[in-house]
Amino acid sequence: MQQPPVVVVMGVAGTGKTTIGPLVAERLGVPYAEGDDFHPGANIAKMSAGVPLDDDDRWPWLDAIGQWAHGRAGLGGVVSSSALKRAYRDRLRAAAPGVVFLHLTGDRTLIEERMAARKGHFMPAALLDSQFATLQSLGDDEAGVAVDVSGSPEDITDRAVAALRRLAGPATRPAPHDPEDLL
After folding, report:
1. What is the reported pLDDT for 114?
2. Are strands 100-105 and 144-148 parallel, antiparallel or unpaired?
3. Which residue, 17, 40, 32, 139, is CA-closest to 77?
4. Do residues 182 and 174 touch, judged by C-beta distance below 8 A?
5. Contact at 8 Å (CB) between 51 and 98?
6. What is the mean pLDDT of residues 92-103?
7. How far apart are CA 171 and CA 64, in angstroms?
8. ∠116-84-170 over CA atoms, to 5°?
9. What are the beta bridge partners of residue 146?
10. Cα gap 100→97, rounded to integer Å
């Protein structure tokens, strides 16, 4: 049996990290951790007030996510994190070298509509522009896949799991009779 991956579900606010992450984790048979839960209270207060985080705000948050990912190495897991900049992903990889990124992408209008429809989340739609301005797509040398977020959560999850399997390669795909293999 191959080792299950630790997947970081990334993307701008409103792409569905909190919806898709648990669905991917369930499909892979691994635990899910909500990245927002790793934010210190000061970060949540800042974002709730409509103020974008700066890198000094993000480093402790990324370190906490990286620590969780490191602890899941060899066991597998899925965690959400915007991971918008290459430097942020590098920091996560430094803590957990085997992480794989699942970049949820989509049309800005669709994402804004989804953000406007959600209730009780601290991230206001007004910060979406700053998220897109900060976003650096995955580089060709980064282990990860990009998946469009149009469609139902089940459709997105199907595409995400299929893309992760392709990334893992044919030698690591599970045999239909072997539920122990996760990718």
Report:
1. 78
2. parallel
3. 32
4. yes
5. no
6. 97
7. 33
8. 105
9. 103
10. 9
Q: Which of 118, 100, 136 is nearest to 12 (CA)?
A: 136
Tokens of 19: 């919806």
Give the separation between CA 22 and CA 170, rounded to whole angstroms.
25
Question: Rounded to whole angstroms, how far apart are CA atoms 23 and 161?
Answer: 10
In the three-class reduction of DSSP (H, G, I as helix; E, B as strand; rest coil), residue 78 is classed as strand
CA proximity to 97, closest of 3, 33, 6, 35: 6
- Cα–Cα nearest to 24, from 161, 181, 165, 168: 161
Q: What is the pLDDT of residues 24-38, one digit of tens each?
A: 999 999 999 999 899
For the chain, the distance separating the N- and C-terminal CA atoms, rounded to the nearest angstrom, is 10
CA gap 11, 103 in Å, rounded? 6
Q: How far apart are CA 64 and CA 183, in angstroms?
A: 26
Q: What is the pLDDT of residues 69-84, one digit of tens each?
A: 999 999 999 999 999 9
d(CA 92, CA 170): 26
- Distance CA(101)–CA(75), nearest Å, equals 16
Ramachandran quadrant class, 74 (left: phi over 0; alpha: psi -120 to 50; beta: rest): left
Residue 29 CA: distances (Å) to CA of 35, 77, 94, 170: 19, 8, 25, 20
Using pLDDT thresholds of 50, 70 and 90, give the confidence band for residue 112: confident
